[in-house]
């Protein structure tokens, strides 16, 4: 019998992949054989000696101390691609919402309740919140994995001209990428072409601050930047300065922080990328299967 500790609420659809005759799921155990985790921060957690594996129901593993796991012989799994559709759909939603001033306009419209001159106020709002169309605009995608490729394909379907750059993989290895995506070998060549820039790389020491004062200086004036990957990939100070000068027209991010909140041009959501029941089920199923396959058979997939 293997004991599995859940460190976050894990979808029951995933837990059902752990047969009860072989696995006992217990959120309170101190001696698990395996851990199932979503976003809980394990960086300072002491692991028991018998722990064999940790499975993250999500793509990023920056909440797990990988070096310490290697030293202790603990195998770490993640679920690449399992929530990619949810993230890509949010990115497309925010691309359009930010371009058409939807959040600000919707918030403003709420204040019209009880307005005796409602139709006049609506006319005023119609002028105040004029937006831009995305069809015919250029989008630069940094990172062409499961999420970046989906974003690129969806943007092409909506009539955008899409450029793609990946620091690690060749264009041929990109996930199901449309042949209409223009491949850029260097990031610096892509930046001046983009009306919109979106980043989809993992957070690693080498990708920290990929979008910074130098890279922003190469962008078009008025570029709109989207970050639904990790907050650390973008230097907030540089973004705020660029928003002030007009170099950046809008920053849409899933990673709110004190520096950004309430700043003009910043549109924050509370890490909603993978927050759909569909994505939670997909991630939990993949993570539970990886854990079960390793503990039962010693097989390693997606680690
Ligand atoms: C991921 O790394 O896949 C997401 O950040 C998962 C999450 O929202 O928990």
From TrEMBL:
Q: What EC number is given for this enzyme? A: 1.1.1.399, 1.1.1.95
Q: Which organism is it from?
A: Faecalibacterium gallinarum
Spell out the protein name for this chain.
D-3-phosphoglycerate dehydrogenase
Family per similarity comment: Belongs to the D-isomer specific 2-hydroxyacid dehydrogenase family.
Q: Please, which domain of life does this record's source organism belong to?
A: Bacteria
Listed under catalytic activity are:
(R)-2-hydroxyglutarate + NAD(+) = 2-oxoglutarate + NADH + H(+); (2R)-3-phosphoglycerate + NAD(+) = 3-phosphooxypyruvate + NADH + H(+)
List the Gene Ontology MF annotations in alphabetical order: NAD binding; phosphoglycerate dehydrogenase activity
**What residues of the intact protein does this structure contain?**
1 to 303 of 386
Q: Which UniProt keywords are listed?
A: NAD, Oxidoreductase
Pathway where it operates: Amino-acid biosynthesis; L-serine biosynthesis; L-serine from 3-phospho-D-glycerate: step 1/3
Report the function annotation for this chain: Catalyzes the reversible oxidation of 3-phospho-D-glycerate to 3-phosphonooxypyruvate, the first step of the phosphorylated L-serine biosynthesis pathway. Also catalyzes the reversible oxidation of 2-hydroxyglutarate to 2-oxoglutarate.
């Amino acid at each position: 019998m293997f004991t599995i500790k859940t460190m976050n609420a894990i979808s029951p659809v995933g837990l059902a992949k752990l047969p009860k005759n072989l696995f006992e799921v217990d959120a309170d155990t101190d001696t698990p054989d395996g851990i199932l985790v979503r976003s809980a921060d394990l960086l300072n957690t002491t692991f028991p000696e018998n722990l064999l594996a940790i499975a993250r129901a999500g793509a990023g593993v920056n909440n797990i101390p990988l070096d310490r796991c290697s030293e202790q012989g603990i195998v770490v799994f993640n679920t690449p691609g399992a929530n990619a559709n949810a993230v890509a759909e949010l990115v497309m939603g925010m691309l359009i919402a930010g371009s058409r001033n939807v959040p600000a306009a919707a918030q403003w419209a709420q204040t019209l309740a009880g307005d005796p001159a409602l139709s006049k106020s609506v006319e005023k709002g119609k002028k105040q919140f004029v937006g831009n169309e995305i069809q015919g605009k250029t989008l630069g995608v940094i990172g062409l994995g499961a999420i970046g490729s989906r974003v690129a394909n969806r943007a092409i379907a909506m009539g955008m001209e899409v450029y793609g750059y990946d620091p690690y993989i060749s264009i041929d290895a990109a996930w199901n990428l449309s042949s209409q995506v223009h491949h850029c070998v260097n990031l610096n060549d892509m930046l001046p072409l983009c009306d919109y820039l979106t980043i989809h790389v993992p957070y690693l020491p080498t990708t920290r601050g990929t979008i910074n004062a130098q890279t922003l200086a190469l962008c078009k004036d008025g570029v709109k930047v989207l970050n639904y990957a990790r907050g650390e990939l973008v230097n907030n100070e540089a973004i705020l300065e660029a928003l002030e000068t007009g170099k950046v027209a809008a920053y849409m991010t899933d990673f709110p922080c004190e520096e950004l909140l309430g700043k003009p041009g910043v549109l924050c959501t509370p890490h909603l990328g993978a927050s759909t029941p569909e994505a939670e089920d997909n991630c939990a199923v993949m993570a539970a299967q990886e854990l079960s396959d390793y503990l039962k058979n010693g097989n390693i997939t997606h680690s």
